[in-house]
Design goal:
Elements: H1 2-25, H2 29-52, H3 69-76, E1 84-90, H4 96-115, E2 120-126, H5 132-141, E3 146-152, E4 155-161, E5 163-169, E6 172-176, H6 185-196, E7 203-207, E8 217-218, E9 223-224, H7 229-234, E10 239-243, E11 255-259, H8 266-277, E12 282-285, H9 323-329, E13 331-333, E14 337-342, E15 357-363, E16 365-369, H10 380-383, E17 387-391, E18 411-415, E19 420-422, E20 427-434, E21 439-443, H11 444-447, E22 470-477, E23 497-501, H12 509-516, E24 519-521, E25 524-525, H13 530-542, H14 548-552, H15 561-609, H16 614-671, H17 675-693
Parallel strand pairs: 1-2, 7-10, 7-11, 11-12, 12-23
Antiparallel strand pairs: 1-5, 3-4, 5-6, 8-9, 13-19, 14-15, 16-21, 17-18, 20-22, 22-23, 24-25
């Protein structure tokens, strides 16, 4: 009210100074002094008033500076008798790549403060390395600067910047050490506020399998490895505990997480299946071929602990029968089956076809899909079709929009995944994520060759099947049949509540790196929703739906489309030119090698006509081939050096052209905005001059 009074008094003084003074004393100097003082008081009053009553309105089309409705509801429903103190330690100057992230963070913090109704107090500290604020951030909250690399007008620079936030409420404290490029800012902030005001967190039980989620002790270096990023993420909002499967799992958890349960021992498998059948909400991640996580696949033998390669340690380490779990869930996993492969001996002749088959073994499938979710990497789908991408463009029916876990999601990545099919009628299977129909499957025994061969050409992939494969599914008991009257003592059957994902790599460390640093190169952005998907699975099973929609929110930043169109055309031309040069070098190398093979064949014929021994011919051919390959490699190296120089020149011209286009638009942005007000000012000047001359005797006008 004091600010409002100052604001009103200033306007009264302005009105009085404007109307009364000219009538009484004419254009006295005091008139202008009062007007100036009134203007100053008006500005001060307005600032004080709006600082107390913060009226905010987001005029952006995508509502970039606004909190989502779910966040506003969560803030309104917070139950805390103590305020939440938020301290943000942010560098005042950051590389260009982090400018938008910094603006998003500051904007969301202000929105959080304004929408909380006084519950959230926000303090933003401009923090530079080696300052008092930097020391306080490190000692009090463990927030330290992060070394980042960014590009500024074509120049690569390394900087140490702060982008950390700390939350306090009473004795509770939550710290977000660094907000990276791909970190969902709104979700991180509101989750931290909700966590710090909770008196008791929900519990996640992590089943102890061969997947070292909590790190693994390396017996060679005698050090413990770091936790998997998923565990660190869960510890921000849950109480995370380890569950020993060697003992019956009788304790109840809000959700039980089982990663690669196929590596359990027989006793552990029995106890785990019993826990699932007892109605324990469970998230299962099983992968036939883990490509980015250090754990054995579904059909692989158990792996020894890190650094322990003694074969004696592997004795007695048996895997449980995973089929027990699949029978309990009434599913078929990744086409698991028993089969006998043909013996590959072309000289063996048998009258019985069964004699040509090898011993029986278990086989399963790995899904591949003929769709490239990263167009910038043109040959990715040809080289590794087992990289299955699910997005709204290539697989429009890939997400179940009727389920809160996946509705509204945009992109998921399943590398070397399996699939799920229903195999019974007592349980209800509801798909969450599935492929398109331009698909097929490959035998696990063929895909596993990637572990010993670097070439994807050696893999014999299966034919297209044209089927949609379920990659993630929710499995629940159907509504139980009503019990007969008088049978109240008999407890109702437990309801199975499981979500099964046929891939472990969906939350690998690689996926978390993509989330934090999605921009791998200029124009190449890998922004997958994998982390949000996995967290949504766990939250849904735990009965916590507060963050499901907030995680899936993707603010769409409007860009300068004209500049992007020009630069994209230049990039496409540059890429075509570079591809043509590289293709020319590859073609020249193949022609040279083919010529070398013909020369060697011709030389061999000449030596054979001279009746030389086979050993002498091989020695001469070996010497000739070695010398010829040296000369060939030197020529190819020279050609590649020339191509590299041409590519460097092309890229330099491209950067110069891009800067010229950017500078042209920047110049227009500086020069054009003042033109309309100047035109109006000139027009007003001439109109006033004309009006001043109206009604004035011609003799009084200056010539």
């Amino acid at each position: 009210w004091a600010a409002f009074a100052v604001y009103a008094a200033a306007h009264l003084a302005l009105l009085w100074g404007w109307l009364a003074w000219p009538q009484r004393v004419g254009l006295a100097p005091g008139h202008y002094i009062v007007r100036a003082l009134a203007l100053v008081l008006s500005v001060l009053g307005a600032n004080a008033f709006f600082s107390r009553y913060d009226f905010r309105h987001d005029i952006t089309t995508e509502k970039l500076s606004s909190l989502s409705p779910q966040t506003l509801d969560l803030l309104r429903n917070l139950q805390s008798d103590r305020p939440v103190h938020v301290e943000a330690f942010v560098s005042p100057s950051v590389p260009e790549a982090y400018v938008q992230t910094r603006l998003n963070l500051l904007s969301m913090l202000e929105e959080l403060r304004a929408a909380s109704g006084g519950l959230v107090d926000v303090q933003i500290h401009d923090t530079e390395p080696y300052t008092e604020q930097a020391t306080r951030a490190r000692e009090q909250y463990g927030i330290t600067p992060r070394d980042v690399r960014g590009e500024t007008r074509g120049a690569i620079e390394d900087r140490r910047i702060f982008m950390g936030v700390a939350f306090r409420c009473g004795l509770q404290k939550v710290v977000v050490p660094f907000i990276d490029l791909g970190t969902p800012v709104e979700y991180e902030l509101v989750r931290s506020v909700a966590t710090v005001t909770q008196q008791k967190r929900k519990r996640v039980g992590v089943l102890r399998t061969d997947a070292p989620l909590f790190g693994e002790f390396d017996f060679q270096t005698f050090t413990r490895q770091n936790n998997w990023p998923l565990v660190d993420e869960l510890q921000k909002g849950y109480e995370v505990v380890q569950v020993d499967p060697s003992q019956p799992i009788t304790e109840r958890y809000d959700v039980l997480l089982a990663v690669q349960p196929s590596t359990l021992s027989p006793e552990g498998m029995k106890n785990f299946v019993a826990a699932v059948q007892s109605g324990q909400p469970t998230a299962i991640f099983e992968d036939p071929f883990p490509a980015f996580t250090p754990v054995a696949g579904t059909l692989d033998p158990k792996r020894p602990p890190m650094g322990m390669m003694n074969p004696m340690m592997m004795q007695g380490m048996q895997k449980g029968d995973i089929e027990e779990l699949w029978k309990a869930l009434e599913i078929s996993f990744s086409g698991m089956r028993k089969e006998r492969n043909p013996l590959r001996d072309p000289f063996r002749i048998s009258l019985n076809d069964s004699d040509d088959l090898g011993p029986e073994r278990t086989e399963c499938d790995v899904v591949w899909q003929n769709y490239n979710g990263i167009p910038k990497l043109a040959d990715l789908n040809k080289r590794v079709p087992e990289f299955v991408f699910i997005d709204r463009g290539g697989t429009p029916r890939g997400f179940n929009d009727e389920d809160p876990i996946t509705s509204g999601m945009q992109r998921l990545w399943f590398p070397f995944a399996g699939y799920v099919r229903q195999a019974g009628s007592n349980l209800d299977l509801q798909w969450l994520v599935r492929t398109g129909d331009n698909t097929g499957v490959s035998r696990y025994s063929e895909v596993s060759k990637l572990r010993t061969s670097r070439s994807e050409d050696n893999i014999l992939r299966g034919r297209p099947t044209g089927q949609e494969y379920i990659l993630a599914a929710r499995i629940r008991s159907k509504n139980p049949v009503a019990q007969p009257a008088g049978d109240a003592k008999t407890p109702p059957p437990a309801k199975i509540n499981v979500i099964l994902v046929a891939d472990v790599d969906v939350f690998s460390a690689t996926v978390f790196r993509f989330r934090d640093q999605p921009e791998l190169a200029e124009g190449l952005r890998l922004d997958f929703d994998n982390v949000a998907f996995v967290l949504n699975v766990l939250d849904e099973l735990a009965g916590d739906d507060r963050f499901l929609e907030i995680r899936k929110r993707r603010p769409l930043h409007r860009t300068l489309t004209r500049i992007e169109a020009v630069t994209e055309k230049s990039r496409r031309e540059t890429v075509r030119t570079i591809d043509s040069l590289l293709e020319g070098v590859k073609r020249a190398a193949e022609e040279e090698r083919e010529k070398l093979r013909r020369d060697i064949a011709e030389l061999r014929k000449q030596m054979q006509s001279q009746n030389l021994s086979a050993a002498a011919i091989d020695d001469q051919i070996g010497i000739y081939r070695e010398e010829a390959e040296k000369r060939l490699n030197r020529r190819l190296e020279e050609q590649q050096q020339q191509v590299r120089q041409e590519i460097e020149q092309i890229q330099t011209r491209q950067q110069v052209e891009l800067r010229r286009v950017q500078d042209r638009y920047k110049m227009a942005a500086v020069l054009l905005p003042p033109v309309p007000p100047l035109a109006v000012a000139i027009g007003v000047f001439f109109v006033r001059r004309m009006r001043e001359r109206e009604g004035v005797a011609r003799s009084r006008l200056r010539s």
